[in-house]
Here is the input.
Amino acid sequence: MALLVLAQPSAAQTTKRVPQGRAEIQMSFAPLVKKSAPAVVNIFTRKIVSERQSSPLFNDPFFRRFFGDNFGPGRRGGGRRRKVQNSLGSGVIIRPNGTIITNHHVIEGADEIRVVLTDRREFDAKVLGRDPRTDLAVLKIDPGSERLPSLRLRDSDDLEVGDLVLAIGNPFGVGQTVTSGIISALARTQVGINDLNFFIQTDAAINPGNSGGALISMGGALVGINSAIYSKNGGSVGIGFAIPSNMVRSVLAGLTTAGRVRRPWFGAAGQTVTPDIAATMKLKRPVGILINNVYPKGPAERAGIRVGDVVTHVGGHEVNDPDALRFRITTRALGNTVRLKYLRKGRPGKVRLDIAAPPEQPPARTTELSGANPFSGATIANLSPALADEIGADIMARGVIIREIRRGSTAARFRFEPGDIVRQVNGAEVKSVGKLQRMLSRPVKRWRLAVERGGRTLRLSIN
Here is the structure.
């Protein structure tokens, strides 16, 4: 097996070179695997679901003549059955006390989670926290006083395209498997797996069941969590994606006792600088993010960033799209500062940005609406940067958002959805939960509503 890089634990101390002879070409990954593999575990989940019977007899008039309308799918007396769904994935022990990192989609909706070590011991696992926005989840098993094998996190910013890596996981449930490859690309932001896109791409074979497994460096450190593949048939075609270890470190640092993740925010939004925009702004080349919205009193405004600025670097790293900017801010430690480089009317500038969590202002005031109005049965809340970050909404948005819709309610009949932002009622702007409640308490003959959904404004007129 070819070994093209002789890497030490710290990339800064490593000199990379091609093989210097037959002996080096014949070197093996076996010692590295023996050291790292015991920290990679199998994760088995169990979920009980209720599904409708699909027999055509339930819709047959002759059958229903004898058994009545209260028998069949969705009716009292039968028509539904409980079914157990089993799934599998992988995870990585990152602390000797049994703390495990895996993908959120591996454990999503699970009623029972079992972790199996390489020595075949099994443990029940509890969820310490989950973060759907990064597709990461943190589990905990109880090994007693024993210190389990674990992998340390390496700075994923040290990676370079061409570095050798190993992927360890449980593909297709066949048992723990090791595959080798190289880093094919870095900073992949157009993958579309989650809304905090920034992936390591590798050609190490990754298949279903590898999700949550380890991508490790030649020094035996964790550089990524294997998350997804590009495939037309469900199997590996040499394009796999892993969540960088720096994002894993950020999620662990921001995990609260409530199981949620507090992450830094920028307090501004923008768009990629295209060749046309660069020409209009008389830039030498397309670079950076053009800022088009700044949140009042947010970190960006306090640092001096203005609408029209082009942010080009965060902490020494070039950023060329909003996902890259978000990643560079998100993976910084709360309470620290980071240097930003920007262009303003073509002139370069630098500022220091305070790394802070999004504020919970205004307070959510989560409320279920009732009464004779179109929103009866909808649970609403004031939209703050903190709430927007938690639910994956536009962090720059303000107003009143629908969190839940009670089944069978008036709001459900009018097909409002969680995530809708209520903008107007009878021509008046909705700015808070309290104001919306007052608007809905007034008797009217017709409701004229404006609701924002997915960036589009929907207008309704209801008698």
